[in-house]
Structures
1.
Amino acid sequence: MQNANKSPSSRVPEQKTRFWHDPAKRALAFQILLVLVVVGFVGMIVQNTLNNLESRGITTGFDFLSQQAGFGITQTLIEYTESSSYGTTFVVGLLNTILVSVLGIIVATALGFLMGVARLSNNWLVAKVASAFVEVFRNIPLLLQIFFWYFAVLQALPSPRKSIELLDTFYLNVRGFYMPQPVPQEGFGLVWLALVIALIVSYLVIRWNAKRQDETGQRFPAYWTASGLIVGLPLLAFLVSGAPLEWDHPVLKGFNFRGGMTILPELAALWVALSIYTAAFIAEIVRSGIEAVSKGQTEAASALGLSQGKVLRLVVIPQAVRVIIPPLTSQYLNLIKNSSLATAIGYPDLVSVFAGTTLNQTGQAIEVIFMTMLVYLTLSLLVSAFMNWFNSRMALVER
Amino acid sequence: MKKLGLIAATAVMSVSVTGTAMASATLDAVKERGYVQCGVTTGVPGYSNPDDKGNWKGMDVDVCRGVAAATLGDADKVKYIPLNAKERFTALQSGEIDMLSRVTTWTLTRDSSLGLNFAGVTYYDGQGFMINKNLGVKSALELDGASLCIQSGTTTELNAADYFRANKMQFEPVVFDTADQTVKGFEAGRCDVLTSDQSQLYALRIKLAKPDSAMVLPEIISKEPLGPVVRQGDDGWFNIVKWSLFAMINAEEMGLTSGNIDSKMKNSSPALDRFVGKEGIKGSGLGLSDDWAYQIVKQVGSYGEAFDRNLGMGSPLKIERGLNALWNKGGLQYAPPIR
Ligand SMILES: N[C@@H](CCC(=O)N[C@@H](CS)C(=O)NCC(=O)O)C(=O)O
């Protein structure tokens, strides 16, 4: 580098800087070295483990995934029989984990927002009820709450023969909540088509409205129109095509109800417990998010003559959401990971089915635990990625 | 010259006799620690269950006690580690316990791919069904559509699925982690049937609030030979556990009990002398003291005594000897000779 101002000819045989004197190259070398050491170390551990397992006569490898599982699972979202493979038990468990997580996230979010807003209410009773909710459910260990809902509440329900019935179509007993299952008949495709069209049209209407409002300031009840379309169009198609839908009703046969759809008490207990526990944390996040919006904003909005509801919807919430989303993401991740407590009450989630029964029947602890950890890692990364994307969208609407 | 040869031969012999004792890392560890670590259930009456003073009692517990008596000369030097069905093999593989004596069925998979060895059979069992009496079911073949409470990580899970499939029946498996939860689920009516090894059904029945409300169906749907398990790769320890159990069975066959062994020893007989370590290989093959078998019988008792006080007529379970009678009394219990 010192030669730069000399004549051009001297540039070629330039006095060579040794690469360890060049900070950039040196840094690169160290990084490569570090990566090699880490890779080597991990490789050594893997090799060592394999050797030890082999010398102790413990089978290794992933061959077991194609072997027949041979045990039953209560709730399967895909086709599963005792003759399916251990690989299928992985998918069944995974889907059950996803099911309870998604259901939990939906209810926890709704309930959490409600309670968070309620805590700030001017109504003394509402505010106190909301804070009692938060304090109680945030401070009791989740496992105890799951046991409470499962053993104390749901297992106190009557036997199938003495089920609580509603309108002769819904039945509630210690084995679950039974309801009719819709069975689409020939011609139901038209309804789906109508729904897709309604969704597309709604999207266009909402975009057109936003643009028009930007340009002219005029508003059009786009959301009402969209809701109307989404409900109305499929309904119309349904009636036009002659109501091609039948219901499969649950009937008591022998020991249990058969037919229809069931919500197992294990799912219900886990769902309720996860939702309420997480909602208590979300409520606090929402409250702090709203309180982070300065009072001046609310006052200014009110001064402009906006109604209470509009102040909240147009001024407070959009700003609060930006504060809320990052901690909300970690609550979602917690909920997904907490769902593995399922195994305590026998809900067939990934940990109970795959890292429980499958691990035990095959004895391949390392492979099974590795796959299970990978699932939780992947789910968490996916949720984080989605929430980051959502957050950046919310953050960018700033003008 | 001849004499010298004889001396040399005896020297070689005696070296090779002491040399037969396998070095056992587990035995060394147990001696150094001063107690045996034994994996048992979290509580199944008759097999392994703490009594009201917190002392572990049961058939599986007596096998652990036998091993402690043989190795340490004191049957009380055992630390019991309660494990549910899912935890048991990992606990053994990882060295958390020295032996597993926990109603564990001997199967091909477990024996051949988990790095474990089964040291014998303490109880020949088979899977059965327990059902609430007021359902009026008389046979397992009437169970189509029933909900079954099952413990996770057991052979029970697999047998139930096989049985219902073979008989073209449906069932709903409700799977719990521990015996207590399974019993609770059954009592709450979450399932119609509790299924497990039949002897454990009798045991769990006395845990019910109203034991008389439940009955065990006659069908046995599987073979469940239950026995103690050790890690593969320590043949010396494997031999010790195996022969501790054999000593208990042989003691019953020889009519020895903890009460009469001392008086019987006064009139020596070849078989008895070998048993108590006065003659023959004594304790050297196993690397134990010569009176190892005597200590087992004196402190723990024979197989028959252990059966009677834990599972049989001397216990609340009142289970018949059945398959578990000695081979010369119409059962399957048979131990190789001590000689
Ligand atoms: N023999 C079977 C089943 C053994 C088993 O775990 N039985 C249950 C009976 S419900 C038990 O003893 N549970 C006690 C516990 O988990 O502590 C096996 O080896 O898989």
Note: Chain A has a mean pLDDT of 87.
2.
Amino acid sequence: MEMPRPDPAILARKARVAQRLREVLPPDAVIDDDSETRVYECDALTAYKCPPMLAVLPGSTQEVSDVLRICHEEGVPVVPRGSGTSLAGGALPTADSVILGVARMNDVLEVDYENRFIRVQSGRTNLSVTGAVEEEGFFYAPDPSSQLACAIAGNIAMNSGGAHCLKYGVTTNNLLGVTMVLMDGTVVEIGGAHLDAGGLDLLGVICGSEGQLGVVTEATLRILHKPEGARPVLMGFDSNEVAGACVSDIIKAGVLPVAIEFMDRPCIEATEAFAHAGYPMCEALLIVEVEGSEAEIDFQLAKIKEIARRHDPVELREAADEDEAARIWLGRKSAFGAMGQINDYMCLDGTIPVTALPQVLRRIGEMSKKFGLEVANVFHAGDGNMHPLILFDANKPGDLETCEAFGAEILKLCVEVGGCLTGEHGVGVEKRELMLHQYSREDLEAQMAVKDVFDPAWLLNPAKVFPLSLTEERRAMAVAAE
Amino acid sequence: MKIMTPATEAELAELVAGAYGPLAPRGGNTRGVPVVGDILSVAGLRGVELYEPGALTLVVKAGTPLAEVEQLLAGENQRLAFEPMDLRGLLGTKGEPTIGGVFAANVSGPRRVQAGAARDFLLGVRYVDGGGRVIRNGGRVMKNVTGYDLVKLMAGSWGTLGVLSEVSLKVLPRAETQATVRLHGVDVKVAVKAMAAALGSPFEVTGAAHDPAAAEGPVVMVRIEGFEASVAYRCARLTEVLRIFGDVSVLDDPDASAVIWRDIRDVAAFHGKPGDVWRLSVKPSEAPEIAERLQADALLFDWGGGLIWARVPEGTNLRARAGAFDGHATIIRASVDTCSRLGMFQPEPATVAALSRGLRAKFDPRGIFNPGLMDAPVEA
Ligand SMILES: Cc1cc2nc3c(=O)[nH]c(=O)nc-3n(C[C@H](O)[C@H](O)[C@H](O)COP(=O)(O)OP(=O)(O)OC[C@H]3O[C@@H](n4cnc5c(N)ncnc54)[C@H](O)[C@@H]3O)c2cc1C
């Protein structure tokens, strides 16, 4: 994968830039020692690494503004960073960039149960947002599997999802407002405790803009009261087609589960060997979870089981108590860990129309033979968000490249059947060059025009999201303007 | 004033590219937006491209009548969960609301508090920008973070960024039944507290409104939807929640309940009454104080107090009365003169306004789409 060559003129100014940043930040908030900047050399897409020129850890919106103003004046690219769990290389630095980490900004600023929102600094981790309100019975709905580590900042930048988004939506549906600093240091307030935008929906385009429009320092998030209870049911089928049809029928019947998770045979086998969750050995497995009071849960599960029975399940198991519920989820939750035991893996997240599921799984199976790499599928079936895990061996020369080529084929297939390249992980550097498979040049021009407005100098996270060849002129402008 | 009605997206693009004066993109022209220049109607672009009930997705051309969409969905026991209002009764307009217009204005009804706004259900768009280019963004799948989300930006842009030609959206199952729990005889302050208690409960309230001037006296209405047994259960639980605030009654006739919520959605209480109509989006707990400052002739509270409908004498500068608050005030019904004097939309802080202006200049460089509609007014 290609990254823009570092600008020697910027590298030559390193000492001066560091000095200027020290004037506005506490001494320990500017990191320029090569051994320490290495901490920021990559995110969770560890195949690509590059230490930044400098890293800064501001503690307030004002400090973020000062940092950006200085970097703007110095013409230095800035890469915002939350917790560095991006799977798309969204927080990958270039050698001439400053990493701006918001990890020190993790305070709760306001909790308002009456109006059902919480305002936090953006470095706060996803899980600790819920942690701040759960005593009163509330929670923050979007729950990426990485929720223990990932920051709200990254969630907003990637518009992250979670297992329960079939019912509760993704980040953008639960975000009410942000404080954001533009590249020139201007602080803007967008949205707040009220609903919807009074003018253009800027919040809507900021969410999911992968740190390219501004640095988010504070966020107002919608919180909800927890449901009275939740219970999963597990069902096994002897083909992907049948499992897919069952998902479709459940949705059509008017029951809206909070989650419908799908696992295929390779995935079931691997997780069973690893976690011993007691899953049946079959072609496809569904975990369906519903919420409500005991009686409501009984009623919905009865309906769901009745639909499942029409599809001749090889297994149909309802959790009788908390313990069994935990066992049902155990395998699903350890799927990634199980794969990691077997080999290195690459996790894709293309989305497809649910109806295309059987066809896509069949084609992925064929590709797996062609490329000679194993693949296992875990899947948010309710919303079509796939997570094919391609297994490879990082120590074997050429394996990573084969894996990437295989991954690209799968993503192109997702687009071909009416889906998209990424459902929740973002484009980052990983899928940047594939963007022209989903969008035309003009479609991408329209998106880049938004960045032109927010960051005319193209200094914020400039080498991400769009194919490098399309952004070359804009990035060159930034260099020329120095 | 000309009215142009292209029959295809390509024709639409050609008309825009060849335009030399201002254009007023319109669907059914039911939303009372002042017209500047020629009317560019998308009513000729209609029809369903794809409907997959099992995937909860619908792709439809922008000029398709809303009624047609709703009928199609009802046939599969599904619906538009964001509950778009019908403005014709309030505005006295005649046209046929279109699905494109619903999204261009981001119109959401009482269920907004629970299900989300129109923009939350919009999965993808095709539109013609100010240069006459056809642009595609988003898609037809529920989860999509591929590139920037221009879909949200187009929703609620009132035709100032581009002309929508096709939309794809997420639909939801229709609830089996519904009921309304009512709390009687409370003032606005108590009403807002009671609605907060209902919305902050685990019982999935899908509407919380307060009519201070109902025929039977001030009333808070809380809607519950779902399967029959579940609705009955939650009605009982919500009755307990609300009882501490006053007298409670349950309306369990689903048809009567549906009429109540249609009337709230369409602000039926204001139909045929004189004066201007404004819509304020506020922090719910601040609603009582703001409402008091408005000195309105009539008020209706939806979204647990987060949405205030106000009827005031013609020409009133309601923003001046409201003073500073967290939120915004939009003119829904007023003379062209009042609209241009005060601006339909809340003036934005300078930093935000600069971004909005910048975006409009990029999407519509010649400034031909509804010029001035969303810009800062003469008298704020
Ligand atoms: C094991 C594992 C499981 C995961 N599961 C899920 C899942 O279920 N669902 C899901 O959606 N994702 C998942 N992810 C991906 C990842 O956790 C999310 O993308 C997450 O939101 C990233 O948050 P972060 O704080 O780590 O951001 P980072 O990785 O630090 O950054 C991500 C992006 O955000 C930008 N950014 C960071 N801070 C700011 C800021 N203050 N202002 C503006 N932009 C900023 C960065 O520049 C970068 O582009 C998973 C990752 C891992 C490793």
Note: The two ends of chain A are 27 Å apart (CA to CA).
